């Protein structure tokens, strides 16, 4: 990794002479090999570059949808200035950063994904005027493009403001001027908090936590019902995820020779080739690790005869993620006890999926799945019935542990800031997308169950679209019945 002139706390580079009051000095690494920049080199680097402005850009695919979303936001908060930041780079270690992912609220309203961006809706007589504030192209005059660690020659070309206007259908301005402008702003203001400390500081005397929370809640609830573009993106995410699961099955022998990390890496390759990334840390839980709900260490052994609980999802380039789980026999065949537990979870999932209907209560699919699992636990003698008593006291939760699903979208647990009455206590509508994912987990040290159960964890999860007349399983491309899973695995292994 090149290390000559990325910025940190030390010596100011001299590429363009004394900087103006509004400019920060471009700095070089404390232990870089060059002490500075000669006047001759600085002058040389200013010229001899071709014009690379892009003139034939088309609007992004979701430009019409993002415009409609901004219009809905404008209608909800008339007369108020609304500020939605993308966020800033976060340090991973020393002078390296984590890969940037824009805030969901910002990406949902603009389609833009670059760091430091801010969407501002300024109130006008008939609604709002939107402006997207971005960093412009790297400056060739002051040397930023080749001396700054975030300059064009270090991290790649940024779009010009003119290009951004064409792509996103929003007037674009220089974000470096925004904080001063916001400090001078008058009238009511709301900001989405938690993403850009500089923007929040500029508004500190103009906003309140309660009003800002209302903005976040509205933007969360706006995503409860997906538009056609979003549904298409979620299907793309699921389709890539199906292929990722197939990839994993084909290399289980190599995972046995190494560890769960081979599974993680295999799925990640599919996610990066066909999408933006994984939508969340992949859970590649073999053997008793399947009983740990969010096992993302993925450093354990993969053994023939054990189960693999693979919970993973590809995230598309527009940030929509799948969230699918299958529990697979590593050697291709479920044992008798594994099949017994697996089939019980499958039956519970079938009941849950059947309860996903427009007009149904959101909780219905959870209740339906939990009832089946409670019935099985009573039938197996693991908990004392009757079933109604078990459900009333929540006794099944020792082995079911978690809720049976959640909303899905640009966040894997989407719409999390929505009001309880709009989400968990709400009613399903066509266009909602949610997971149905019951599970049974018998911990390796659970002395209340027979020894043969211990260390077995099973979860089956699918992504379900609520339709006008019922539901559609977006992840139906992956088999779920135990016998079909075994046949599918055998076909993939040849």
From TrEMBL:
Keyword list, A-Z:
Aminopeptidase, Hydrolase, Manganese, Metal-binding, Protease
Question: Catalytic activity annotated for this protein?
Answer: Release of any N-terminal amino acid, including proline, that is linked to proline, even from a dipeptide or tripeptide
According to its UniProt record, what is one Pfam family this protein matches? AMP_N
Q: Which InterPro entries match?
A: Aminopep_P_N, Creatin/AminoP/Spt16_N, Creatinase/aminopeptidase-like, Pept_M24, Peptidase_M24B_aminopep-P_CS, X-Pro_dipept-like
Coiled-coil ranges from the UniProt annotation: none
Q: Which cofactor does it need?
A: Mn(2+)
What Gene Ontology molecular function terms does this protein carry? aminopeptidase activity
Name all Aminopeptidase P N-terminal domain ranges. 61-200
Q: Which domain of life is it from?
A: Bacteria
According to the UniProt record, where is the region Disordered? 1-34
Protein EC: 3.4.11.9
Return the similarity comment: Belongs to the peptidase M24B family.
The record, for PANTHER family, names:
XAA-PRO AMINOPEPTIDASE 3
Q: What is this protein called?
A: Xaa-Pro aminopeptidase
């Amino acid at each position: 990794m090149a290390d000559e002139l990325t910025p940190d706390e030390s010596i100011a580079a001299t590429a363009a002479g004394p900087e103006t009051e509004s400019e920060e000095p471009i700095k070089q690494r404390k232990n870089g090999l060059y002490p500075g920049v000669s006047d001759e080199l600085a002058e040389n680097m200013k010229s001899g570059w071709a014009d690379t402005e892009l003139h034939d850009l088309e609007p992004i695919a979701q430009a019409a949808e993002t415009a409609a979303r901004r219009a809905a936001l404008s209608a909800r908060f008339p007369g108020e200035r609304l500020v939605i930041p993308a966020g800033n780079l976060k340090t991973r270690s020393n002078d390296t950063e984590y890969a940037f992912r824009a805030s969901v609220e910002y990406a949902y309203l603009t389609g833009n994904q670059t760091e430091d961006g801010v969407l501002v809706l300024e109130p006008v007589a008939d609604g709002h005027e939107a402006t997207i504030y971005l960093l412009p192209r790297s400056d060739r005059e002051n040397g930023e493009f080749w001396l700054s660690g975030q300059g064009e020659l270090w991290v790649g070309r940024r779009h010009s403001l003119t290009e951004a206007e064409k792509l996103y259908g929003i007037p674009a301005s220089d974000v470096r001027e925004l904080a001063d402008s916001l400090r001078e702003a008058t009238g009511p203001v709301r900001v989405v908090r938690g993403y850009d400390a500089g923007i929040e500081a500029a508004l500190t005397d103009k906003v309140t936590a309660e009003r800002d929370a209302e903005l976040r809640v509205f933007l969360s609830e706006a995503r409860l019902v997906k538009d056609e573009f979003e549904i298409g993106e979620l299907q793309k995410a699921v389709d890539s995820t199906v292929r990722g699961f197939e990839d994993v099955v084909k290399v289980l022998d190599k995972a046995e020779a190494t560890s769960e990390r081979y599974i993680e890496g295999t799925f990640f390759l599919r996610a990066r080739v066909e999408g933006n990334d994984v939508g969340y840390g992949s859970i590649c839980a073999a053997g008793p690790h399947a009983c740990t709900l969010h096992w993302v260490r993925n450093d354990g052994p993969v053994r023939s005869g054990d189960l693999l609980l693979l919970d993973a999802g590809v995230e598309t380039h527009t940030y929509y993620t799948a969230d699918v789980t299958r529990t697979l026999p590593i050697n291709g065949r479920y044992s008798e006890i594994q099949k017994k537990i697996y089939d019980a979870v499958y039956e519970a999932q079938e009941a849950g999926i059947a309860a996903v209907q427009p007009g149904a209560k959101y909780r219905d699919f959870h209740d339906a799945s939990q009832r089946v699992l409670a019935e099985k636990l009573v039938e197996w003698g693991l908990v004392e019935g009757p079933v109604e008593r078990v459900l009333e006291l929540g006794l099944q939760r020792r082995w079911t542990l978690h809720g049976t699903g959640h909303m899905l979208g640009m966040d894997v647990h989407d719409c999390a800031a929505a009001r309880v009455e709009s989400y968990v206590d709400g009613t399903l509508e066509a266009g909602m997308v949610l997971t149905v994912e019951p599970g049974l987990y018998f911990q390796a040290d659970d002395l209340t169950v027979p020894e043969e159960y211990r260390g077995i964890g099973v979860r089956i999860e699918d992504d379900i679209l609520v339709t006008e007349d019922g539901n559609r399983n977006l992840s139906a491309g992956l088999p779920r019945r135990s016998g079909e899973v075994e046949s599918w695995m055998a076909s993939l292994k040849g």
